[in-house]
Amino acid sequence: xxxxxxxxxxxxxxxxxxxxxxxxxxxxxxxxxxxxxxxxxxxxxxxxxxxxxxxxxxxxxxxxxxxxxxxxxxxxxxx
Length: 79
Fold this sequence. Notes:
Blueprint: H1 16-29, H2 47-59, H3 65-76
Helix pairs in contact: 1-2, 2-3
């Protein structure tokens, strides 16, 4: 699955919701593994945050995206 919107990869979170929906659908189909193809380098704003949320959703696609984002931001950027 693609976790990057290549026409506008500088946007902060352009595809996280659709990625989450895809993961839920894959699970319903019995898929047991997904390769999340996206940017391999830090050239997008807050790419570390997107990587964290993506990895978290791979473990459990039912998680709340906003909660994941806020908990990461509080830990990584406390100021």
